């Protein structure tokens, strides 16, 4: 799998540029394209691939490594094969090199929705349901439509359950997850790697043009961080280049990254970062930290995708529940019991809490 993946998700304003940006990325040498059904542009990416072939930038689509993703709305067992077939048709390819389950939960939000959007039918991770989805993905792999399979946005608990219950041949080989200098996820990454799962980081530049629903006043910008800026000045390169080189060089170069750009010079620069190691061990240490007072690093737990649009009622509006494994269920029956207890608790509070009239 090529380390550098060209992203095809962007804020809505850039949908019109995805085709040109993808053709340009292929022209400049990117060979790994990161796509998803949820990005609603697989047809456009397919057109870009065909245009790149027509123009002679690649001999055929087979020269590319394509990552695709199963969208949450297609996680019911009966929906997996039709969703994958639609993806293959739209991209114009016979197989997907790396097919990821996009999110651990089957909860959908409408495209371009606002941050306040909530789906009343949303549910937490229910392992029994996930295994059915995974079983269907496996069937598609055995049918030759997928070369390798992986997950995206999995947590430690959800991955532990999956690894416990599938054979070695049926394990995910990749987990794609948010990782950038101010949100490093080092412990989680090391756990996945200890299980032989390669971690690919998305939002490697801190996603400066992300949708409004994923933008909060608490957020900080990776490329504006003083340490990133200082290292950029030392090396005479852009802060973006430092972020991407860090993504490539960190953790003994064990993972990959996804980055998106619409500008040709940035598309070129971001790929160049995967070809040349720029950061010295000392500069890597200043960003990653060494777990000591002298070397704190700059990780600030600055998660950009909170995922609040995926929340289910029992999470009580707290987006951290998506990530902290406090509501992960093995069976439908376990979740049903939990939900009944939660509803009874809330009904009891309604009846018994004293309300003071002002
Ligand atoms: N698995 C998942 O759940 C998941 C979630 C989110 C994203 N992803 C994938 O990861 C990809 C990357 O995420 P992202 O696009 O949100 O974030 P990103 O790659 O961190 O940031 C992309 C933004 O940075 C700007 N940029 C790119 N190169 C630059 C440079 N050299 N200097 C300055 N600015 C630069 C781009 O601007 P311009 O557009 O103006 O060129 C673009 O707006 C997505 O496209 C998608 O494929 C996956």
CATH architecture name: Alpha-Beta Barrel
Mean pLDDT across the residues is 96
Rg (C-alpha, Å): 21 Å
CATH C-level class: Alpha Beta
Q: How many domains, as an integer?
A: 1
3D shape: globular
Strand content: 5-15%
Question: Which fold name fills CATH's third level, the topology?
Answer: TIM Barrel
Which cofactors or ions or other ligands sit in this model? NADP nicotinamide-adenine-dinucleotide phosphate
Number of helices: 11
State the low-pLDDT regions, or none: none
What order do the SSEs take from the amino end to the carboxyl end, as H and E? EHEHEHEEHEHEHEHHEHHEH
Tell me the distance between the termini. Answer: 63 Å
What would you call the structural class? alpha/beta
Give the strand order, joined by hyphens, for the main sheet: 1-2-3-4-6-7-8-9
Number of strands: 10
Helix content: 25-40%
Biggest sheet layout: 8 strands, parallel, barrel
């Amino acid at each position: 799998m090529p380390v550098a993946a060209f992203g095809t998700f962007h804020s809505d304003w850039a949908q019109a540029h995805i085709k040109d940006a993808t053709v340009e990325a292929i022209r400049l040498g990117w060979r790994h394209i990161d796509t998803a059904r949820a990005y609603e542009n697989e047809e456009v990416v397919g057109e870009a691939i065909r245009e790149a072939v027509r123009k002679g930038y690649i001999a055929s689509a087979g020269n590319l490594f394509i990552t695709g993703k199963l969208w949450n709305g297609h996680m019911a067992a009966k929906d997996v094969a039709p969703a994958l077939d639609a993806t293959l048709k739209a991209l114009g390819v016979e197989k997907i090199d790396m097919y990821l389950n996009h999110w651990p939960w089957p909860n959908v939000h409408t495209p371009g929705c606002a941050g306040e959007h909530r789906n009343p039918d949303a549910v937490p991770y229910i392992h029994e349901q996930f295994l059915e989805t995974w079983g269907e993905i496996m069937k598609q792999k055995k049918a030759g439509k997928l070369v390798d399979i992986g997950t995206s946005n999995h947590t430690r608990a959800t991955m532990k359950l999956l690894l416990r219950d599938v054979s070695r041949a049926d394990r995910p080989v990749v987990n794609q997850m948010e990782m950038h200098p101010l949100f490093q996820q080092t412990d989680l990454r090391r756990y996945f790697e200890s299980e032989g799962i390669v971690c690919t980081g998305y939002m490697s530049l801190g996603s400066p043009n992300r949708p409004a629903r994923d933008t909060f006043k608490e957020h900080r910008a990776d490329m504006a961080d003083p340490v990133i800026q200082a290292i950029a000045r030392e090396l005479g390169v852009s802060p973006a280049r430092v972020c991407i080189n860090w993504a490539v060089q960190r953790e003994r170069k064990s993972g990959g990254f996804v980055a998106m750009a619409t500008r040709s010079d940035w598309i070129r620069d971001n790929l160049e970062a995967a070809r040349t190691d720029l950061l010295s061990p000392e500069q890597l240490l200043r960003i990653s930290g060494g777990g000591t007072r002298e070397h704190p690093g700059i990780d600030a737990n600055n998660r950009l995708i909170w995922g609040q649009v995926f929340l289910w009622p029992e999470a009580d509006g707290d987006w951290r529940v998506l990530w902290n494994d406090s509501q992960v269920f093995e069976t439908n029956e376990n979740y049903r019991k939990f939900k009944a207890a939660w509803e009874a608790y809330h009904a009891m509070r309604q009846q018994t809490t004293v309300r003071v009239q002002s």
